[in-house]
Every structure is written in structure tokens, then in C-alpha cells.
Amino acid sequence: MTIPATTSQHTTLDWYGCATFALATAGLTIFLDAYIDRPSTAAGPNPPRTADDVDEADWILIGHSHFDHLYGAERIMANTEATLVGGYESIRVMEEAGVPADRMICISGGETIDLELADGRGAGVRVTSYPSQHSCVWSQMPDPDGSGEIGSGEMEPADAVCLGDLGATWQEQQVRMASVMKYLETELDGPATEHLAASMVGHSPRGDGGPLVFVIETPDGRIFYQDTSGHWSGIIENLDADVAILAAAGRANIDGEPIQGSLAEFVGRQAATLGASQIVLGHHDNWLPGFSIPTDVEPIRTAIATHAPNATLLDLDYLDATPIFAGTLGTPTSEPHATNEPGDPS
Ligand SMILES: [Zn+2]
User: How far does residue 67's CA lie from ligand 1's centre (Å)?
Assistant: First the structure.
């Protein structure tokens, strides 16, 4: 992909932590996911933010229905005149939370939505959704032998090569997922446990709701957005983007099976497939201590340099309004950022 040498629109990206971003383009503020509140022990913007703080949003695009993507959208909707776009389960959860149905657009992948507003803002901005896959959360096994002795349920590091677990049925995955849920209920610290109790009320009792990815066309270029580490290979092979926002957490999912390899490899290969010039990571900070980890970005940087040598990995700090497309101050993949702790507030 080529990207414009100069940009008149000054598209910027604010990272709220986890996989939540606010994209400012062509006069619009577009939230990508809406999860902003965190346990007090989690990484995140300093000072911490809550969804109640957000008073500027025109659109909210939700990747899937889990609380760490959707929780808080109901408050952003209450504080703004935004329209929410999401899958059927996300819309159901939001409707139960009191969001008016006529302010939401229900999608399942394949729809293109024109984001221009009646006042003319957002001219030339449109988004297309595509079906996607969720990371294999079930493959984490805090209780591998079923003895009730709970071990670590933390995510694996980005360079851990994970093999096996192929061909698990839905029922087998459910048994393993129950072990993950038991770990979350019993093994996290006080603040994380309180946060889960607050944020999961009414949220995702039916699972992820069918993950979606988005391609957003702006006057400056094209952005791919993914909020969980998975994809259908036959779909992303036909997509391209100038900027790719790629989720980097957990065991990646390719076409319904856990990756035979590392998360870093998954991200690097996706960067190449999409042909993106700039890569932004999401979901890689320590948003739920005891479950998430502060992901070391360096193996991912190396994998991007190997598979997509023309791509630049942008190092976003929280809420730093990073310019994307041309003219950015992104760090080339060959020059590691001073810190590899994405969770460190700067
Ligand atoms: Zn999820």
C-alpha cells in the first residue's frame, strides 16, 4: 500500500488501554470499543479514566460483546449523541442497559456504513465490517488435570510457542472455559474481583457474540481494526489497510483453531497479509492483573520486521493523540522504543 505523502485531515488515535481507541478523523470522533474503566491495580491512563468522562463521541464500533470491549458504552451513549454499531449480542446487552434501539445499528459482518453526519462532518468516512474469530481463551488451563488445584491462569508471553489443542469440540472448550472462569472468580486480587463483579453484570452471558473486524475508510487512508487475536484467513487475505490496529493477547485463533506457534508470529503475519505501512497494537497492556500480562512488545516488533519489513510499529502511550498515516513520528521497527512495558503510563 502507498499512503499519501502529506495529510490534510490529521487523523489521530488515542489509546484508552486494552483494545479501546478513540479515532479522530474528518471532524468525527469514532470510538473503537468502549471499555475504559479498570481495576485500581491495572495499567491504564494516569489519572485513571472512566466511561463517564467521555463527552465526545459520534460513533462507537464494537468488535465483540465481552465486557472488556463493551462495558461503559452505555454511559458514553448516555453522555453523547453517538450511534453504536455492533453485533446482535452487543446490541442486546446495550438495549438491556437502557440504550435506545434507534441509536444502534445491528450488524453481522459484510455491512458498509456511511459515517458522514447530517452536519457534514465525516464526509468520505465509511466502515465495512467482516466476520472474525475470538482468541482461544479456553486453551488457557489453570487446572490442567481437573484436580481443583488452580495454577497460573495468566496469558502466555508473546514469544511463547504454543502447540496442540487442535480439534477440540465446543463441549470440550466449554469444560476448559469453566476452568478459566473459576480461576477468574477465585484467584484474582480484591480490586480485580470487584471490577469483574461490577463490569460483568448483564454482560456477555452468551459469550463473545461473534467477533467482527472493521475496515474504516477515511480521507487520509484506510484503517483495519481488530479487538481480539483471531481471524478467518480467507477474509483477511482479501483485505488491505494503510494502518492496522492488531490485538495482541492470548492464544491466537486462525479459522477456528488455536495457532500452532506464537502470538508474535500471528501479529507479524497479519501485518504482512494486510500490507499495512503502520501497525498499532491493542489489548497488550495489563488491563486485568492476574489474568492479563504486560506484554513484552519486542518479540512482536521482531516478527513484524521479519514478515512485514516495510511496516512501522507505532508506540502509542495512553491518550497521546498519535497522528497516523503520513507524517507520523512512529518508531521504525529497527529502533526499539525506550520501554517495552506498554502498560507504563508516561
Ligand atoms: Zn473477548
Answer: 7
